């Protein structure tokens, strides 16, 4: 009877998930694809011909490919330097902790803020420009600004990927290589680069996909260098919106992302896995520590220099003309009922997204990792994870705009929250599934023999042992919901505006003081949530 009840409960969870994914993922994507082929006279490929032959579209695609790939390679190199310093040198513990913190800071801010930070750092009156005696290093509007913005944007993702993998590389092979007489470069290539080859490739492809589909950075510092993300925005929210040509651009935008995921799946076959990882202390090498430590310090200081403006500009009267300290900009924002209301909108959306998203992810992972559902259902849920990882936020936002315009869900918090849950589903699901698979498989059977129902076992046994991962999932959803702009910019309304979309609006009025105040609100809110999650996870690990 217990097994039957468990089976019914799991079937209910799976059915609810299938309805959610069908209604808010499959249907919108199909409608968008149909829209790209269907005009007033029926089926046509004319919209594709129109876009592909339009002036400047090919240049925009080439610009996106070139700048995104260039920044992806540079980001991976920089992230490798930081991760190597943390894992393979004897730099002091404080230095390593400092590197970890600086590498992750950009993920707590929206990408649209990066562009404004670059302007205030490298512009003619920028902080770094002033420190260099007024000499501007480069033109911030165009490829250079895009490159720096993309590098800052993707550095945390690349660092996390490489740093985590380095933690699972067996360092004894580095010792063996030296014993066998290999010189330093050969040992480095054999014992470090070779095991990391799959992760380095994954980093490049992930950074490329994120850069290729980002809208916030090109919006701020793209200048005359047009990229495909800005073309898509102009098609859908420009002076003359066109759903047909917009859907064509969205479909084309999917292709590089899909190709990168397929390549990652192929590269994954060649990853090196160790049965056991030997704990070996890094030997002291003064030259190595100074060189790698200095390189990491320079990278960290550049990141600090760029984001320092976000902290400085809101607390001075008028940058760079009146540098007297003041809190007037903060008072102005908190006194403005509209701005403070939008902040509470963002908090509400992020909190509900995190709570509901965690439930969706937990249910999905329970179905695939702690049940005996059919292989088809399990494969479907896993496939949804893969699909959501390939769909850019802008494309998902366009699909929702086309599907839900004119319905009761248009411009509602419900639609924004569901969009966030689907958009960021992949990583939390994989985290949760991996965690549940590591738990003892016999718990449910033992509890059933003792007379407990599946729900009681879930509440009393499984969930308490998954609290730390659940907290991480909550944190992931919350932070991303606070900083995202690419999808929600297409589906918010006047009453459901969030901070990132308000920042986009303030840009038109050149109100950068307010923009940086709102950006700091996002940063400190995300840091507070992250700190709370760290406290919870540490307590659970001690238990």
Percent of residues in helical segments? over 70%
Measured between the Cα atoms of the first and last residue, the distance is: 34 Å
- Classify the beta-strand content into a percent band: under 5%
- By secondary-structure content and strand pairing, the structural class works out as mainly alpha
**Secondary structure tally, helices:** 24
- With strands numbered from the N-terminus, the spatial order across the biggest sheet is 1-2
Q: What is the third-level CATH name, the topology of the largest domain?
A: MetI-like fold
| CATH top-level class of the largest domain | Mainly Alpha
> How many runs of DSSP E, i.e. beta strands?
4
Q: What would CATH call the homologous superfamily of the largest domain?
A: MetI-like
List low-confidence stretches: 1-5
C-alpha geometry: globular
What does the radius of gyration come to? Answer: 25 Å
Number of domains as seen in the coordinates: 2
Indicate the mean pLDDT.
84
Largest sheet: 2 strands, antiparallel
The string of secondary-structure elements, in order, is HEEHHHHHHHHHHHHEEHHHHHHHHHHH
CATH architecture of the largest domain: Orthogonal Bundle
Task: Describe the structure concisely.
With 543 residues, the chain is an all-alpha fold.
Account of the 3D structure:
The chain has helices at residues 2-37, 46-52, 57-88, 93-104, 111-122, 127-131, 143-166, 172-179, 184-213, 216-221, 228-237, 243-267, 286-312, 328-335, 337-369, 375-390, 393-404, 413-423, 426-437, 443-449, 454-462, 467-483, 499-508, 512-542, and strands spanning 38-39, 42-43, 316-318, 322-325. It is an all-alpha fold and 543 residues long. It folds into two domains: 1-22 and 331-543, Orthogonal Bundle (MetI-like fold), CATH 1.10.3720; 57-225 and 242-324, MetI-like (MetI-like fold), CATH 1.10.3720. The protein is globular. Mean pLDDT is 84; it is low at 1-5.
């Amino acid at each position: 009877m217990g097994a039957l009840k468990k089976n019914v409960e799991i079937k209910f969870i799976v059915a609810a998930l299938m309805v959610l994914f069908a209604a808010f993922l499959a249907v919108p994507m199909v409608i968008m694809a149909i829209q790209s082929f269907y005009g007033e006279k029926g089926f046509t490929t004319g919209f594709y011909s129109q876009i592909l032959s339009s002036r400047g579209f090919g240049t925009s695609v080439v610009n996106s490919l070139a700048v995104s790939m260039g920044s992806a390679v540079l980001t991976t190199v920089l992230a490798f330097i930081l991760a190597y310093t943390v894992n393979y040198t004897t730099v002091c513990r404080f230095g390593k902790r400092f590197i970890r913190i600086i590498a992750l800071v950009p993920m707590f801010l929206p990408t649209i803020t990066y562009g404004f930070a670059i302007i205030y750092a490298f512009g003619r009156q920028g902080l770094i420009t002033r420190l260099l005696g007024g000499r501007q290093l480069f033109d911030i509007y165009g490829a250079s600004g895009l490159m720096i913005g993309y590098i800052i944007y993707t550095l945390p993702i690349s660092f996390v990927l490489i740093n985590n993998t380095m933690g699972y590389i067996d360092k004894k092979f580095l010792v063996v290589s030296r014993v066998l007489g290999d010189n330093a470069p050969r040992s480095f290539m054999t014992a470090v680069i070779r095991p990391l080859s799959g992760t380095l490739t994954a980093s490049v492809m992930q950074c490329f996909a994120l850069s290729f589909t980002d809208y916030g950075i090109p919006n701020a510092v793209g200048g005359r260098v047009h990229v495909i993300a800005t073309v898509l925005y102009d098609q859908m929210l420009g002076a003359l919106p066109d759903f047909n040509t917009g859907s064509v651009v969205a479909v084309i935008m999917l292709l590089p992302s899909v190709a990168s995921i397929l390549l990652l799946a192929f590269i994954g076959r060649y990853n090196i896995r160790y049965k056991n990882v030997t704990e070996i202390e890094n030997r002291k090498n003064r030259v190595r520590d100074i060189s790698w430590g200095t390189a990491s310090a320079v990278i960290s200081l550049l990141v600090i220099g760029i984001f320092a403006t976000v902290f400085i500009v809101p607390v001075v009267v008028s940058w760079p003309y009146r540098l007297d300290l003041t809190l007037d900009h903060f008072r102005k924002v908190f006194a403005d009922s509209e701005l403070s209301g939008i902040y509470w909108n963002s908090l509400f959306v992020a909190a509900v997204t995190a709570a509901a998203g965690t439930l969706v992810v937990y249910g999905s992972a329970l179905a695939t990792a702690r049940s005996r559902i059919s292989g088809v259902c399990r494969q479907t849920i896993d496939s949804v994870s893969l699909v959501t990882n390939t769909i850019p936020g802008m494309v998902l936002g366009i699909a929702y705009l086309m599907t839900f315009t004119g319905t009761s869900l248009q411009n509602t918090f419900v639609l924004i929250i569901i969009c966030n849950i689907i958009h960021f589903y992949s990583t939390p699901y994989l985290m949760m599934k991996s965690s549940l698979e590591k738990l003892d498989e016999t718990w449910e059977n033992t509890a059933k023999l003792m007379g407990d129902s599946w729900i009681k076992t879930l509440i009393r046994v499984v969930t308490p042992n998954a609290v730390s991962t659940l907290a991480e999932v909550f944190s992931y959803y919350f932070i991303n919901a606070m900083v995202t702009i690419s999808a929600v910019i297409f589906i918010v309304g006047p009453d459901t505006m969030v901070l990132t979309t308000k920042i986009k609006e303030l840009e038109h009025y050149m109100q950068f003081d307010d923009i940086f105040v709102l950006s700091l609100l996002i940063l400190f809110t995300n840091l507070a949530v992250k700190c709370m999650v760290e406290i919870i996870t540490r307590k659970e690990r001690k238990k």
